[in-house]
Amino acid sequence: MSALLLLPRNAVIAVLRLYRVAVSPLYGDVCRYHPSCSRYALEAVQQSGVVVGTAQAAWRVLRCNPWSRGGVDDPPARLRSSYRITTHGFVRPAEQPGG
User: What is the pTM of this model?
Assistant: First the structure.
């Protein structure tokens, strides 16, 4: 059941990963922040879910402009311990001990 609830989050993660592979390299290294805006969005959705993560990513994109100083700006960590991130970046329910 928990994996079904994570389906929208993983669908957005799949779109972001596709963007990072197909579109992001075309722009080159132009982001004023580290990590890049696309990686920030990916991590925000992984850790905070679709709604909150998308809002965080949108705010980050709005802040990324020529007048910004930039710098290191990581998304706030909110990943619950009941989830784990796979090697491919998808979110899965954590294995429960003894279950």
Answer: 0.87
